[in-house]
Amino acid sequence: MVVGVCTLALQIPGSHSLKDKRRVVKSIVTRVGNKFNVSIAEVDAHDAWQSAVLGIACVSNDASHAHRLLTKVVEMIANSHFAAHVADYQIEML
After folding, report:
1. Could you give the C-alpha distances from 40 to 8, 16, 31, in angstroms and in order?
2. Which of 33, 54, 64, 69 could connect to 8 by a Cys-Cys bridge, CB 3.0–4.6 Å?
3. Tens digit of each residue's pLDDT (9 = 90 or more) over 7-62
4. Closest Cα to residue 45, out of 21, 63, 16?
5. What does the alpha-carbon distance between residue 65 and residue 81 come to, in Å, rounded to a whole number?
6. Residue 14 DSSP symbol
7. How many CB atoms lie within 10 A of CB 2?
8. In the chain, where are the structural domains located?
9. Does domain 2-93 have CATH number 3.30.70.1120?
10. What pTM was computed for the model?
């Protein structure tokens, strides 16, 4: 069993309050969770208005499959019309 974990840092330049940030983060979490069947949640920078850190996890029997899946998640977030930009990400296998 392989657990793939991705830590994704987002910049949300149009956010002027925590309410704006929550709207953007919730939209991303809902869409990614439904489309890719992965676990995703905000894990850091809870009080920052214009940044968020998401944790994304998946379980697989193949490390390359887990890596491909997490890469597709990052690409979907980066290429979608969310009000957030991917600042950095890291993928690791456990």
Report:
1. 10, 24, 10
2. 54
3. 999 999 988 888 989 999 999 999 999 999 899 999 988 788 899 999 999 999 99
4. 21
5. 26
6. T
7. 15
8. 2-93
9. yes
10. 0.87
